[in-house]
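Sample log: Putative zinc-or iron-chelating protein.
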Amino acid sequence: MFPCSKCGCCCKRIDKAVFNVGIKADDNALFFPYTWDSTGRCKKLTKKNRCSVYDNRPLICNIDKLFELLDMPKNDYYKLNIDICNTLMDEDKVPLKYRIR
């Protein structure tokens, strides 16, 4: 399972995170049925950094399931997503304790 730190950065920057995972733009996996605000924050993210539709979240929001569609070893896909997560955390000045190693 992906080692998510639950910092919420990917959900607060969904406008950026959705398009950085290496999937072709015409792929249905990119379908994101919800909206985000002007800062990129998904409107399904609660004030407590929890997804209000977690059990039914879009495929693009589920690293473990999305991996199955890609022609990439799971560990490589995890590393790619860890790099994206940590970059978003750096940009948002999230405390180091949330960094994924």
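Observation: The chain has one domain: 9-96.
Observation: The two ends are 14 Å apart (CA to CA).
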